[in-house]
Batch of 2 targets.
Target 1
Amino acid sequence: MDGITIGIIAVLVGLAIGFAVAKFMEKGKASKTIQSAKKEAERVLRDANVEGENIKKDKIFQAKEKFLELKAEHEKVINTKDKKIGEAEKRTRDKESQISSELAKNKKLSDQLEAQIKEVSYKNEFFDKKQSELDKLHKNQVQQLEVISGLSAEEAKGQLLESLRETAKSDAMSYMQSTMEEAKLTAQQEAKKIIINTIQRIGTEEAVENCVSVFNLESDDVKGRIIGREGRNIRALEAATGVEIVVDDTPEAIILSCFDSIRREVARLSLHKLVTDGRIHPARIEEIVKKTEKQIEQEIVEIGKRTVIDLGIHGLHPELIRAVGRMKYRSSYGQNLLQHSREVAKLCGVMAAELGLNTKMAKRAGLLHDIGKVPNTEAEMETPHAILGMQWAEKFGEKPDVCNAIGAHHDEIEMKNLIAPIVQVCDAISGARPGARRQVLDSYIQRLKDLEEIAFGFGGVQKAYAIQAGRELRVIVESEKVTDDKAAELSFEISQKIQTDMTYPGQVKVTVIRETRAVNVAK
């Protein structure tokens, strides 16, 4: 126990001694560290002081430079302002001197004006005195003349005026007579010159259309298909179009005969479509004919548009354009109406240019002068074509000068402007060309139209076609309104009406066709 105690004590004493030695050594090391830190701190402080002094010097130097720069700029601004103020003061002094000079001039002018006013006033007073003296002297002289001549001043003036009036009247009549004679001679020469120049500048080919069209075929085998079984196809085509179709021995050709150009064109186009399509039977024929009629109506409008564009005419009403297109399928004394109207329009334009008038209005009136020859209804056919054309032009907004020129080109109404005689002259020029018109063809077409109109005058008539050059009148009636017995009676009545009202060579065969159809649709 004592040994353990002694050992523990020895250990403790050793530990204490070791701790003391360690503490002593640590204290010595710490003192050295503290001294080193102090030296380092002193060095850092010295460096910081040196750097602070350098920074301070730099900042003071920068501040001085900034101050000097701001001072220079401020001095520059002050100098600029001083310069401007000096210039303004100089301008002010110049203005003051100028105003002083102007005031001096104005004062001088004012003094001169006052002097002139005084002088004018003095002269006015002097002239007034002189005028009163002259008036008295003139009055005395007139009184002396009246005493010498035995006439008053008014009587002498009247005699002088009467003498002058008679002399002037005689001179004026003589001058007017010579002027009128010279004007007549000059007007005739100028008119001839203008007409000759106009005719020379317009060269138009005249092609008179006949009443026959030729439909060419690729081969004669097609003729049998066009005729159909027992002729049913050709009969259906004739009934639908009102055109006589002649199928003879002419190789690869079929003749279409009709006085109406529109019906003939419908038949030609329908035949072309049927032959191209290959299906030829009565129902197909009627369908194609109806479509072709609509196509012709569209083509008529296109023809009218092309015509007005070619002539440089703008703003024409669509109905008037349609009437212009329909003129292609009408003739006047054998002369194509559209060609005639185009020629008249060009002639009017040239003649109006020669006379210094409105060329566009003259061409417009020349193109429209014969639109009354293509009436829409039978009632309109009774009105003279010039009056009907004028009514249409007024209805569709044409100018009064154009309307008057249309209505007066055959002297139905009075001419009220210079365009009207130009249209009348140009119409005569166009129609007077050798070979331009044929009276016989026009009367023949009129006779065929009269035949059809007689048929339309009876009730129940749906269509009427004059064929065989007027030797046959084919009438198609409505089956609901006309019975078989009534059809025979209608044929007799129409033939009697033709025999009574018309003059014609040979005989006219009246054929009344009544067809009954029963149609149902399977669904």
Target 2
Amino acid sequence: MNAEIDTMIVRGACPHDCPDTCAFEYHVKGGKLVEVTGDKNHPMTQGRLCVKLKDFASHHYNPDRILAPLKRVGPKGSRQFEPITWDEALATIRDKWNGIIAEYGAQAIMPHAYLGHQGTLNGLTSGDAFFNRLGSTVAEKTYCESGSSTAWIMTVGPSGGLDIESFVHAKYIIVWGMNMTSTNIHGWPFIVKAQEAGAKIVVIDPVRTRTAKAADWHVQINPGTDGALALGMMNVIIAEDLVDHDYVENYTLGYEELKARAALFPPERVSEITGIPAEDIVTLAREYATTPPAAIREGVAIERSRGGGQAIRAITCLPALIGAWRHVGGGAMEMPIWEFPTNFDRICRPDWIRPGTRVVNELDLGAALTGELQLDPPIKSLFVYNSNPMSQAPAQAKIARGLEREDLFTVVSELFITDTAKYADIILPSAMQGEQLDIMVTWGHLYISLNQPAIAPPPDCVPNVEMFRRLAKTMGFNDDYWDRTDWEMLQDFYDWNSPALEGITLETLKATGWARINVGLPHERKPHAEGNFKTPSGKCEFKSSITENFVVPVWRSMYEGMQPGEPIDPVPDYVPPYESRETNPELAKRFPLSIVSPKAHAFLNSQYANEAPKQKRQGEQTVFMHPDDAAARQIVTGSTVRVFNERGHFDGRAEIVDALMPGLVMANLGHWPSFTTSGTAVNSISSDAHCGMGMAGSYSDNLVQVEHVAA
């Protein structure tokens, strides 16, 4: 093939923290990536990519991309760097770390990573083996999904649950706490198809989102009160004897305890808590219980308050209560990664973690770096990859103070000089997706996807897996873990003999790009029609066998030690928010408005928020307000407003909409502070308090005030 004339197609997959995990076709001409399109044959992707990926090819050639290792030459945060060689960068890291280890021990070094990349080789767990071997502090990675995972596993075990493709067979669908038309656009068509066939679509969300507008019924709920609504639905279902008693008797545990708990939540009380009319709560419960197959799509947003974990537990109990799992298209979907036979122990090597090694949660980064946690030894070095905590983590001001420490040696692996990377002492340049091999972790469907390199990376840019190989050799680690090729690692990191992968190999994936794992086809999959829950009892546990708080090991390098361990009520309950007018009236006198910060439509977390086309598509940092709240403050659309509380502030352009209930404001997550007028973003006001399960964050559990800022 003449590469100067012909275009070559290489199969790949999207790297992003999104449930869709689209199948790519890379178009390469003359060694250059000229276009990236969606695979028309992939049942989820169906040839379409989201707005975030429309110019993914040109993303690889962004002129601001980091193309060489960088060394800081100015004050921290000044963005003053100069290029150095890899040898110089690695030698600097080695010398600094050896000095820290000699004086403080290896636990004075802390990694910080999340899902800036979603690959097996280069994603969430790509550095775990290295840092476990180093003996560093173990980082709990609980930006999102951790509380959901803990609650889900406590209730139904590590099950993939309902297949998104099976939603076409449902007759009643609840989308609970998820704006699918922005964050799960390839899942949404299956729900639309069900709607066209007569299914009723209900969206439960504090905001009338794009998804809510497309639904048949939007149930508008006060933030952080989802658990009360689920228990109120149970109250009606049980009181009106809409329970599938045969299913409950044979396949559940703890019905009498759940019944007693639900009795405490009559519709009138739930209405006062949630802001939903009592008659709507009754209608929702009746319709859900009497319209099989009934399906629930659970969004991650539910976990983002003090009681988020218990709310997910309560919601996840609903399908078993009415026997929804009996039907194709019935049940609940949270995150199907548990169906994939991934050898996480082989990836992460928890056997290298020394007994008693401490754990520091990543959402506590600011508290860890500023001394608030009083760690011994203190954190003296931070290594950040696949993450941008200055945008995405709570307590933004606290993190900035920590990163400004002159005695903190910070290394960041990045594509661009982000608001986190600007504080680094050393920046290491990363490869992009079109330049590297990987199997993509998938948390929204049941297809395994291989990403093949379409083009060569710039000479100094390397995938994470290669970066950690180099670091391991630099630190003198001679284990054969780092001697394997990428292909050999992928062969080891999955159980290719599992029934789920029968007929699927790396070679077949190389040819096809993707394959559906063998866990039942969408028109026949009923994973829990006869129980078979992956809990200790084998049943859906209304009353959990687990009574202590834990973080699912995959979010903490597969480390089973030093779990949080606080007692958990084994029966789902409503746990009120930390910050609300009802639970904290004194605080609400000063900060009377609740705030939610959902993901942006044109950004992927903080990715693309530095690129002009996406900035234009998303618009500037915007603060959405209800007309009543705006009028009381003499704010109109277009006003510059300041959102603030005791933790910090950010400025934005006011947008007055009736899509919010009074007392609630909204600002999208993902904007880089350096591109906003105030130099801060929405997480400047976010608390670093944790959800009651899985050490998840409480991003939707914050009170603020909003004021007009004079021009």
